[in-house]
Design a protein that fits this description.
Blueprint lengths: L1 H19 L3 E5 L5 E7 L4 E15 L6 E13 L3 H11 L7 E10 L6 E13 L2 E13 L3 E9 L20 E11 L9
Antiparallel strand pairs: 1-3, 1-9, 2-3, 2-9, 3-4, 4-5, 5-6, 6-7, 7-8, 8-9
Amino acid sequence: MTRTWVVWAAAVLAAASRVAAQPAALEIDAAQSKVEFTLGDVLHTVHGTFQLRQGSFEFDPATGRMSGEIVVDAASGSSGNAARDRRMHANILESDRYPDIVFRPEWVEGKVMAKGTSQVQVHGMFRIHGVDHEMAVPVDVESNGRYAVTAHFLVPYVKWGMKNPSTLFLRVNDKVEIAIHAVARPRTTSAVTLK
C-alpha cells in the first residue's frame, strides 16, 4: 500500500512540474499597475507618474523565452507641475511625436517560482523617443495564481539622445529612475506560441 502511495505521489508531482513548466500567457492589469519616475536636481527631487496603456506577454518557464510588449502612454507623464510637464512633453520626450514607451521582453534570467517570491533579470528591448535600447531589468516577482511584479531601473535619457532640461540655475540629473509595480494575470487562451 505504501509503495502505491509513493508511486502515485511521484506521478502527481511529475504532472504538477510539467504543468508549472508550461508556457503561460499573461495580461497586465493596468488598473492595478503604476509606473513612477524620480529625477533628482540640485534643489529637490521630482517625482511623477506615467499611465500603463497595455501589457501582455508570453513566458515559457522551461526555456526562459518571452515575447509580447508593455506599453506606457508617454503623454500621460505628470509631475504635478503643469509648466514642468509641458517642457517634459514638448522638449524632452516629444510625446506628440513619440506617444509610446515600449518594453518588449525577450528572455528571463533566473527561475520564476510557481508560488512564492522570485528575483530575476528580464532582458529585452526598451523603446523610448523612437529608438530601441537593449536592457536587462531586475524584477521581483510574487506568485500566487497572479503575478505581482516590481522593477526598478535607470534610463540614461541624455545618453539616449533626449535633451537635458538643466538651465544656468538648475542642474538636473542625466538619468531618471523608473519604478514599475504591475499585476499580471493568466490570459484566457487555448495555446501559447512563443516567437
